[in-house]
Every structure is written in structure tokens, then in C-alpha cells.
Amino acid sequence: MKLPVTLSLDPDSGTIQFIDQTRLPGNLEIVECTTVKRLAAAIRNLEIRGAPALGVAGGFGIALAAFRIRKTDRAGFLDALKKDGDLLIGTRPTAINLSWGVRKVLQAVEQEDSIPSMRDAAVQEALAIAREDEACCRAIGDHGAALLPNHGTVLTHCNAGALACSTYGTALGVIRSAVAQGKDIRVIACETRPLLQGARLTAWELVQDGIDTTVITDSMAAGMMQSGRIDCAVVGADRITHDAVFNKIGTYMHAVCAKHHGVPFYVAAPLSTFDAERSADDIVIEERAREEVATCGSRMTVPEGAKVYNPSFDATPMELITAVITERGLVTPPVDMKAFISRHTIR
Ligand code: MRU
After folding, report:
1. CATH architecture of the region 7-138
2. Where exactly does CATH 3.40.50.10470 map onto the chain?
3. Which of 21, 158, 192, 272 to mutate to test the pocket of ligand 1 (most atoms within 8 A of CB)?
4. Each residue of 191-203: b (16+ CB within 10 Å) or e?
5. pLDDT at residue 336 is higher than 80
6. What is the pTM of this model?
């Protein structure tokens, strides 16, 4: 199993290296990032994407900032770090992991008195986030693998794989662990319009692992469920409130179809994706540029004059979800999600 390392931090310089995910599957390009501004652009452009990877990027971004800020007084240094944190958090509003990663590292920095020790704390905490993310993904994989049937066909949407995390993946972590246990699993990867994270990234990862993968357009999933060709679905999440799972646009459509056809619908996510403070109605769904829908490569696919609506995520109500697979085990709605989230979410 050849797992990509999505992003890494040089502890001596604060420089970040990341895989530019917009270039996959054609080109595997590693970018060296030396400024917070460049990191913010990479997140905005989806060069780095996926909720847990955004958490790691947020943490790494504060560590990078700690090497670049030239202030010599503690208060000024901290103030400048927080401004860089705000810049990063402002890039994408829906995945809660981004603000979680930024705040976690800022909290560690605030415990320290001198600038060198603040810098050191930022690096250590940021690296810990990445390490813990991998451990969470592997634990999610272990908990979820038992849910996948042997000789089963599993549908997934978007990319909740190694590329969306520090490595290994959440939804793809479940699939990887099931395969590692010797199960024969076939994956249906929905292409995930408009930016094709399923076709480009999920299929790329799974093919490298030698896992049987078929890409379908998103609109083919319902028919496959109707004809009994999907045994279960497993997807990731960008934010989980007590009443809904926010994930890539199209997830809700698959969940409705799954419920209708009696197909189990699983969500795999670490506790850093849970939001204890808000309900579904409070969450901002990112809307992205017209061009993402209105063009295909350099070709125009929508005439000028036609409006385009391009929300990046949708909300799947809890009652459509069979179980949420976390690093601490399964949560099965209608368990009291509110109580579960406030018990397990550390902010
Ligand atoms: O817009 P993206 O590509 O960042 O959206 C990613 C998703 O919706 C993923 O499914 C989600 O972040 C879970 S990743 C483990």
C-alpha cells in the first residue's frame, strides 16, 4: 500500500510541502510553501483540501507564521500570529477542522512566555495534529472495516482518502482497513461534480493500492442502488452537528437514495469534525466560482446569460445515516448526538 503524504512541515524552517491536488491524476507535483499567503491561496484553490487535511494545514500554517513574523515583543508576535490564523480560517467556511487546527496551535503558543518557546510550541503542536490525524484515520479504519461485507461493493463520494487527511483517509481508511483484513471489496467512486475529487483523487489513490475501482457520474448512483449493485455507502464529512452531516455536494442525494433502497449509509470522521456549538441551520455552505460549473477544461459548458449555482457542500439529516464511524467507535443515530458531541468534542 503506497500512501501519499498530503503535506509535511519542516520543523527547522517552518516550510510546508504539499501535494498540489489540482494537478492529479495527471501530475504528482510537490509544492514548497514558504508564506502564509501562499498557503491561504493553496487552501482557497483546493490544492490542499479535505477536512482533516485542512485541520493539519491550519496548524502547520501557524507554525509557518511563527518563523516568518518579525515582531520581537510577545504581545505583538501573538497578535500577528492570530491575524495569520484569521487569514487561514477565512479561506473556506464549511470544514470546521480548519479553524480547529489553527486554534489548537494558537492555544499551545499562548501557554509560552518567550518567542523562541512560542515558535517551538507551534511546531510541536502542529506536528502532533498531523500524527494524531493519522492515528485517528487508522482507528476509524479499524472500527469501520467490520461494517463492510466481504465480496461487497461500496459506494463513496468525493475524496475522503489519504489526500484529504495527513494520510490513510477516513472513508477510504475504512475501505483500506477492510481490504487489509482480507476482504474482497469493490469501490464505486462517484466522480463528484464539479471538481471531480472522486474521479481524479479517490480513483487515483485506490488504483495505486490495487483496489478494484469503478468511476461513475454522480447521477448513476441511484440506478445502481435500485438494481441492487451497491451494498453500502461510506463517505467523509466536513462538519457534523447534532442534526446533520455536512459533506461534499451530492452526499445528501446519495443518502436519500440509500434510505429509499435500504442501503446502509456510513459517515467516517474524526471528532475534530464535530461541532458542539451549532445546529445545521447555523452553518455557512461555501459557494464557489461560476467557472467550476460553466467550464470543462478550456471548454465553455454553460452559455453566457445562464446563471450558475455552485454550493460546495450539502447537509444530510442524521436520520438518513446508519452510523458515524469515529476514532472512538460507532455512533448510531438516533442516539442523542447533542450529548455525544458535547461529551467528545474538545475545542
Ligand atoms: O471541497 P473539498 O474537496 O475540500 O471537499 C472535501 C469533502 O467534502 C470530503 O468528503 C470531506 O472533507 C471529508 S475528507 C476526509
Report:
1. Up-down Bundle (1.20)
2. 141-344
3. 158
4. bbbbbbbbbbbbb
5. no
6. 0.96
